[in-house]
Amino acid sequence: MPIENLSQVKDEEQPAKVPELKEIPSHLKYAFLSKDAFRPAIISSSLSPLEEEKLMRVLRENQGALGLVDF
User: pTM, whole model, 2 decimals?
Assistant: First the structure.
């Protein structure tokens, strides 16, 4: 079997895992970089809705710099 086919089979066999979310201090909260909850980020719970929206936009736009790229 060619190498390309092995990588495709491997990806198809592994179901996508939703990360286990642990309890965090009350001054923090989980926010998600994707709608499917596969990319959680921990942010301050004291941010205003506008600040949170701006922060999430920056984090989403820079996922590659954070090492969050899909292979």
Answer: 0.62
Q: Which residues of 9-45 are buried (b: 16+ CB within 10 A; e: fewer)?
A: eeeeeeeeeeeeeeeeeeeeeebebeeeeebebebee
User: With the C-alpha atoms ordered 24, 28, 29, 34, is the resulting torsion angle positive or negative?
Assistant: negative
Residue 5 CA to its chain's centroid (Å): 27
Interatomic CA distance for residues 69 and 62, integer angstroms:
10
pLDDT in single tens digits along all 71 residues of the chain: 455 555 555 545 555 666 788 899 999 999 988 777 778 889 999 999 999 999 999 988 887 777 666 64
